[in-house]
Design a protein that fits this description.
239 residues; mainly beta; five-stranded antiparallel β-sheet; 2 helices; 13 strands; 5% helix; globular; disordered N terminus
């Protein structure tokens, strides 16, 4: 399969930019991200003070054999290890499937970028707080291909993934600054017959970030299922 070339990228807020001003060409991808009820999450700062945080997420492409092709977008905290007061906590449980699919191992043996060696082979940015569109122009694309997304909140506890889980427990998610509920993975197959497709949940990532596997059991996931309301990929055509 030929390499997918990323030519044009645009991330925009529905409230700040009119979608009609964007010019689409044949085979451009328009990726719609609609936020869900739990898009914003109370993250503890200090002394009982909380901040409404949006999630960390990545959107990328793979071939139909599961080989990583290219990242469309990843949030900057993941890309640059710019967690607030992380005190050396690498938060490998944040987006482990995306990290392992990329297959880049860093100096400490983990698979996610560092401050010294940030992610540079794609587009990064702050997590949006409202619905977003991503425009991506492709050249020399060969169908079919897969679009995946992975999304995660830190400290997103529930009854099964509690804050006090111990390190050797199967529901341990990184400690008091960990994920709580693990990252969810969405996927959709794009071929030349699709005009649009909605990405569907296919499972969750490793709870503690120790591997890049997909775990299909999502019955114990609660509020994390409504971080995202919709991820839709549209293949645009010129009118």
């Amino acid at each position: 399969m030929r390499r997918i070339l990323l030519l044009v990228f645009c991330l925009m807020s529905f409230g700040a930019c009119d979608d009609s001003i964007l010019s689409y060409s044949n085979n451009d991808l328009k990726i719609e991200i609609k936020t869900g009820k739990h898009w914003l999450h109370e993250f503890p700062l200090f002394l009982g003070i909380f901040k409404d945080n949006p999630p960390q997420f990545a959107v990328w492409m793979e071939d139909t054999s599961g080989n990583y092709l290219s990242t469309i977008y990843v949030t900057s905290k993941i890309a640059t290890e710019s967690w607030i007061a992380n005190k050396g906590n690498r938060r490998k449980e944040a987006l482990p499937h995306w990290c392992h699919q990329r297959g880049v191992e860093y100096e400490d043996g983990f698979m996610l970028p560092t401050k010294e060696n940030p992610f540079t082979d794609g587009i990064t940015g702050a997590t949006p707080k409202t619905d977003k569109n991503i425009k991506l122009a492709l050249n020399e694309i060969e169908y079919p291909f897969v679009v995946k997304a992975e999304i995660n909140h830190s400290t997103d506890w529930n009854d099964y993934y509690p804050k006090n889980a111990k390190k050797d427990d199967e529901n341990f998610s990184g400690g008091k600054s960990g994920s709580g509920q693990p990252a969810l993975i969405y996927s959709g197959l794009i071929d030349e017959n699709n005009e649009s497709i909605e990405l569907k949940i296919i499972g969750h990532s490793s709870v503690d970030g120790s591997d890049g596997l997909i775990y299909n059991d999502i019955e114990k996931i609660t509020s994390a299922k409504s971080i995202i309301k919709l991820i839709k990929v549209n293949i645009m055509e010129q009118e």
